[in-house]
Amino acid sequence: MPISEDQWFIMNLKPSIHGLLPEELEAFCKQNGQPAFRAKQIFDWLYGKFVPSFDEMKNLPAPLRALLAEHYSFQALEKLEVSGEKGETQKLLFKLSDKEMIETVIIPAPRRGTNTVCVSSQVGCVYGCAFCASGQKGVIRNLTAGEIVGEVMEVARQLGERPNNVVFMGIGEPFDNYDAVMKSVRILNHPDGLNIGARKITVSTCGVVPGIERLAEEGLQVELSVSLHAPDNETRSKTMPVNETWPLAELMDACANYTEKTNRIITFEYTLIKDLNDSPEQARELVQLLRRFPCRVNLIPLSPVEEFDGERPDSETMQIFFQTLEKAHINTTLRDSKGSNLKAACGQLRSRRS
Ligand code: SAH
Predict the structure, then answer these.
(1) DSSP3 helix / strand / coil % (the chain, rounded to 5)
(2) Is 346 a catalytic residue?
């Protein structure tokens, strides 16, 4: 039976069960006179069997199920819409318990037989990159770890299996919501949970230097992507206000330190925009900028967004840019962002119905 708006709201004033690490669940069990192994059982129902409610946790005593329901909400998100066909890129629109909305994207790779979930980490975004629809109205609030894990679980339920990769490339700046994002990473990565390998989880930042510095100290094997989009400060500041706070010199120092400390290779995202950042000269400048340490570059043709008056370059220009990097032995991909017919491509996600 569908639940009414008011019921939905009241139910979700409680914290989400999906925001707990196993040790927290264990502490909850102990505090309530339950053996610690119950936590493992609950985790298995949540992440092994994807049950949609406490009632279905059949091997738990009824009083424990009632206690859990009293303290925790189950579904922090309500699925309002699914666009796109099964087996292709799909976009899910969710309503949160305070009625804010976010979007999540499923990107299947049929040849590899894998599914990637692109999750949002905030409602809106404070950084306001000119070409990105997600931040045009500023940030409204951070998502909780339970809401972020909830996005992945909704996808798992829809697919009937655990997704293989998670990328924090939906709405929001993950490093502006650092603690909740890291907690969600630990829950998703936990062997008793979805057990998604840290290397299958990518956190993408527009260049928030303190976040890069903190991540370098985490001892986590997650992938880091940095949205660069220009090889010089003047061009970068035209579309990315974040560059005024952390200009390229600081950003590149942080990236170099990160690489040295973690031995992990950063992927730089570079959205190609006609006559702005796509010239052969700029490709050569990019090579110079990235010479200091090993890295990868992901070139993405601009996806159209209403608010930004820019175009993607023609394919020859993009090929020349690509080859300039390749010739300099920078591992580069030129890929089309999936899902632009659904407004589900990079930079097209919004915190409202489109
Ligand atoms: N805030 C983080 C996470 C968002 S990831 C970050 O900036 O990295 C989304 C990626 O899509 C970023 O690399 C972003 O710069 C890029 N992007 C945004 N708008 C785009 C557009 N219109 N076309 C192509 N890529 C875009």
Answers:
(1) 40, 20, 40
(2) yes
pLDDT cut 90: percent of the chain above it? 85
**Is the same domain home to 46 and 84?**
no
CA of 86 from ligand 1 middle (Å) equals 24
Atom index in ligand 1 nearest the CA of residue 171 equals: 4
Q: Side chain identity at 107, as an amino acid letter?
A: I
Is the pTM higher than 0.90? Answer: yes
Do 180 and 65 have their domain in common? no
In a domain, 206, yes or no: yes
Asked if residue 292 and residue 231 are part of one domain, the reply reads yes
- CATH number, domain containing residue 324: 3.20.20.70
* 1 belongs to a structural domain: no
Q: What does the pLDDT look like over 194-225, one tens digit per residue?
A: 999 999 999 999 999 999 999 999 999 999 99
- Tokens in use for 301? 């043709």
Q: Reduced to 3 states, what is the DSSP secondary structure of residue 81?
A: strand
Residue pLDDT, tens place only, 93-103:
999 988 999 99
Question: Is it the case that residue 1 has pLDDT exceeding 50?
Answer: no
Q: Are residues 187 and 240 in the same domain?
A: yes
Residue 352 Cα to ligand 1 midpoint, Å, equals 18
In angstroms, rounded to a whole number, what is the distance separating the alpha carbons of residues 132 and 313? Answer: 17
Task: Find, among 266, 173, 181, 169, the residue nearest to 216 by Cα.
Answer: 266
Verify whether ligand 1 is closer than 6 Å to residue 251 (CB atom). Answer: no
What's the CA-to-centroid distance between 342 and ligand 1, angstroms? 16
**Does residue 350 sit within a domain?**
no
Does the residue 200 lie in any domain?
Answer: yes
CATH of the domain at 31: 1.10.150.530
Residue among 105, 127, 269 whose CB has most ligand 1 atoms within 8 A, to mutate: 269
The number of domains in the chain is 2
H-type alpha helices, the chain: 5-11, 22-31, 37-43, 62-71, 145-159, 178-189, 209-216, 233-239, 242-245, 248-262, 280-289, 315-327
Range of the domain at 312: 77-342
